[in-house]
Amino acid sequence: MVILGAGPAGLLLGNLLHGSGIDCVVLERADPDHVRTRARAGFLAANTVRILDRHGLADGLQRAGRAHSTCEFRTEDGRFRLDYGRLGRGERHTVYPQQELVTDLLNRFLDAGGRIRFETEALAVHDADSPHPTVTAREPDGRPTRWRARYVAGCDGRHGAARRSLPPGTLRHHHDHGATWLGLLVQAPPSLDAVGYAVHRRGFAGHMARTAEVTRYYLQCDRGTPADAWPEERIWHELDLRMRAAEHGPMHRGPVLHRTVVDLDSDVVEPLRHGALLLAGDAASLLSPSAAKGANLAVLAAELLAEALVDDLAHGDPRALDQYSRRCLAHIWRAQEFSHWMVRLLHAVPGPYGRSPFDDSLRRTRLESLRTSRTHQDWFAENYVGV
Ligand code: APR
Fold first, then answer.
1. Ligand 1 atom, smallest distance to 287 CA
2. pLDDT for 328 beyond 90
3. Measured from the CA of 27, which atom of ligand 1 is nearest?
4. Looking at residues 76-89, what average pLDDT do you find?
5. Which DSSP category does 201 fall into?
6. Distance CA 177, CA 265 (A)
């Protein structure tokens, strides 16, 4: 088994296969420090915690993770809170920075004797339509190598070798949500004890706690904005305005540790299996960060794929592997639907959904329904935490 990529999908898959006695090697183009420190997501769904717990991989998040179950919406019509842990299925998120989770999975894999080749870039997957696919890669010293396997798991993200090796004619659904976010990691305590979503005529603003000292903020910006185009003063000015700090209390300021610009788009590859090549995580589908689903889908797909591969490789039963793509896509499309709904809910201007007064009124009506309708709130909670 060759696994491309040491993110949440690749590392969980590696741990589960290695734990079931399946020989596998992970090829990762980055070095160990980069893999352990890259700050990305951090909102783990209840199902993700269940999966990690089921496989004895939840020690870190049980120890340091923080339960989270409140969203606060701030709009021109005021603000309201949803304690989604008391709605829907009564499930909550666990706030645990992704780099901590990835570090836990990596350490466990290495401690168990798992094989991982760092700074080894997969270049292409060959003969995926045969029982003997190979992966060509570039070693840290530049030497080309070829890895043979019965199956190859593409967990190397949207721009990885697995996607590049898909046969022509593979279906790739792409949707541009028409909005762009400036993503910020700030060295400051959270400004509110909730995920904060601000809908404002100047654009969306978002607030997500990461730890007691670090907070993630998002600010809708013009497409093509360079990440360093906004001086810190402008960032706080916009956050104060859009989060309506004058009404609802000050934003806790601090130095910006990291910034990135994200165009909100989504894509899905169909099917997720091409012979001996199987996709999981961002290599399978990318979601806008509006609903914090990416890492949770990566974990769900990795467990589904691991179980199917163990059935096939250890027990000679290919049925689950034949069903993997259909089963995983069902979860992916559900997450895509909710993520799409959230983008339309949160973006007033500019963006294809925000321009017309008709759309503005629809958005205000949806927010009002979310504020007042218990049925709508239950639906929201079930889809917000579920994957
Ligand atoms: N060869 C080897 N490794 C590669 C290659 C390649 N050609 N291309 C990418 N990689 C590695 C990256 O360095 C990265 O470590 O693949 C890994 C992919 O990891 P992630 O991007 O974290 O992808 P995944 O495991 O699918 O998890 C995705 O996590 O951060 C969230 O929001 C994010 O939804 C996303 C989820």
1. 34
2. yes
3. 2
4. 95
5. T
6. 5
Q: For ligand 1, atom 34, which residue shows the shortest CA distance?
A: 294
| Sign of the C-alpha dihedral computed for residues 100, 102, 105 and 111 taken in this order | negative
Helix (H) or strand (E) holding 359: helix 357-372
Q: Which of 68, 177, 274, 347 is catalytic?
A: 68
68 counts as catalytic: yes
Two structure tokens written together for 86:
């008391």
Is the CB of residue 344 less than 8 Å from the CB of residue 290?
A: no
Dist. CA 147–CA 281, nearest whole Å: 22
Give kind and range of the element (H or E) at residue 36. helix 32-37
Residue whose token pair is 């003969």: 127
Residue type for position 36 = R
What global pTM score does this model have? Answer: 0.95
Q: At what angle do helices 98-111 and 8-19 cross, to 10 degrees?
A: 30
Q: Is 349 exposed, middle or buried (0-12, 13-18, 19+ CB in 10 A)?
A: middle
User: pLDDT tens digits, residue range 198-236?
Assistant: 999 899 999 999 889 999 999 999 999 999 999 999 999
Kindly report whether the peptide bond that precedes residue 168 is cis, defined as omega within 30 degrees of 0.
no
Q: Which two tokens stand for residue 28?
A: 């990762």
Pocket flag, ligand 1, residue 273 (CB < 6 Å): no
Q: Do residues 327 and 37 lie in contact, with contact meaning Cβ atoms separated by under 8 Å?
A: no
